[in-house]
TrEMBL record, chain A:
Organism: Sedimentibacter hydroxybenzoicus DSM 7310
InterPro entries for this protein: PAS, PAS-like_dom_sf
Superkingdom per UniProt: Bacteria
Chain ranges of the PAS domain: 43-90
Protein name, entry field: PAS domain-containing protein
Name of one Pfam family that matches: PAS_8
């Protein structure tokens, strides 16, 4: 094998530098997140739990991972029991094509904003156990992905607003 | 870097990763971080405690600015622009623990641009629906006040962007030429690309490709044309790279798209 030219060495060095920069950037991002998390410990779950709008976090298979108090109050879905029940959001919204499609598209990495929805939570009525609160009034939905490290989307979030 | 260092780094990275992926608090932290609209959290005395990523992006706030002038420093109750935009009684109610909904509030963009040292937000006006609610501590007292701001309307009205769109839509059969498009908009190439993306959410080239795909879809829906003819009618070669671009963008090959379309 012959000796490498100065240009080849330089270009290899550039590739190496770029890789290192990428790694440092990734590490910085992780450190920043961790700092944010420790600085605001428990604040994030409180924001979600106290939020007056129903919020659901679900996996690509549609399994409801967690819901907030407003979601539980509106539908009866118990956040504590969700893990055992493996409840699918797709089963609950099968009558709402627009919402179903938006939720699926979230896993392609796109934010979805739906307006003029008609009672998007009625599909969850089967879950009703404790409450008879009206499900009406929610006309908008914000659905967005939560990417994991490496860009893979492991969760989606749906927020229903008025 | 030695193998040991590398192993340690990799183990550390895995631990962080599993922490953020599995821990509920980590998951919810990410839900707040990636929430596409603005979230502010205030202490009961009005001081800013936390803002999410969308706030930084929307208002062009740098990390340094966030740490030096906002967190622990900015006070919503002492901000005259806020009391001018949100009725005082509503703000008081929110800080007393009530959930308050303020629809269609005009954002004081000029004040924000001046405060954050942003030259131009590239929009004429923005209106938000603001919901404020409290987080209570175990003693039932207000611990934090959260404000969620959902953008309802944005007025941009940049003439230059409209001119560029018009140029692309007139010359969509030609090869894409960013220089000519920028010239039609009356802007420099770099400024044009940045401005176009800000206003439309896509690059000029993406806009050109999307427009071209839209035209190709129209032609593919015409059953009188073969797929090759539909491509030719758009100045494209069915055997060229655009068939691949079409599949990447729509998730369907041109023939799959036609089959699906005719079944409707």
């Amino acid at each position: 094998m012959g000796k490498k030219t100065k240009e080849q060495l330089l270009s290899e060095l550039l590739v190496l530098q770029k890789e290192l920069e990428k790694k440092v950037q990734h590490q910085d991002q992780m450190i920043r997140r961790f700092q944010m998390l420790t600085a605001n410990e428990s604040l994030f779950s409180q924001i979600i739990d106290f939020c007056p709008y129903p919020i659901a976090v679900f996996t690509p298979q549609g399994v409801l991972e967690t819901v907030n108090d407003a979601f539980s109050a509106a539908t009866g879905a118990d956040g504590e029991e969700l893990g055992d029940r493996k409840l699918s959001i797709y089963d609950c919204i099968s009558n709402n094509v627009e919402l179903d499609s938006a939720i699926r598209q979230v896993f392609a990495g796109k934010n979805q904003f739906l307006d003029n929805l008609k009672n998007p939570l009625t599909g969850f009525e089967g879950l009703k156990k404790k409450t008879e609160l009206p499900l009406k009034g929610y006309r908008k939905a914000i659905i967005f992905p939560i990417p994991a490290e490496g860009g893979l989307i492991m969760h989606g979030v749906a927020v229903f607003t008025i | 870097m030695s193998m040991n260092d590398k192993d340690n780094q990799s183990r550390l990275s895995d631990s962080f990763q599993s922490f953020f992926n599995s821990d509920k608090e980590g998951l919810l932290a990410k839900a707040i971080e990636f929430f596409p609209y603005l979230i502010h959290v205030f202490a009961p005395d009005g001081t800013a405690v936390f803002v999410n990523e969308a706030v930084l992006q929307q208002y062009g706030i740098t990390r340094a600015l966030l740490e030096n002038t906002i967190i622990g420093k900015y006070n919503i109750l002492k901000d005259p622009t806020i009391s001018a935009a949100i009725p005082c009684s509503l703000l008081q109610q929110a800080f007393q623990g009530e959930t308050v909904y303020c629809p269609d509030i005009k954002v004081p963009l000029d004040t924000l641009a001046e405060r954050y040292g942003v030259q131009d937000y590239d929009m004429e006006a923005m209106y938000q629906d603001i919901t404020m609610f409290s987080i209570f501590n175990n003693a039932g007292k207000v611990a934090y006040i959260v404000s969620i701001q959902i953008i309802r309307r944005i007025y941009r009205g940049k003439e230059e962007i409209e001119r560029a769109k018009e140029y692309i839509e007139t010359h969509w059969m030609d090869a894409f030429d960013v220089k000519e498009t920028a010239k039609a908009a009356g802007l420099s190439r770099t400024h044009f690309s940045r401005l176009f993306k800000k206003h439309t959410g896509m690059t000029p080239h993406d806009y050109y490709i999307s427009f071209k795909i839209g035209r190709l879809k129209d032609k593919l829906s015409d059953s009188n044309l073969s797929i090759s003819q539909a491509f030719a009618a758009c100045g494209l070669d069915y055997n060229g790279y655009f068939a691949k671009v079409f599949k990447e963008r729509t998730g369907l090959s041109p023939s799959q798209y036609r089959n699906k379309d005719t079944k409707r």
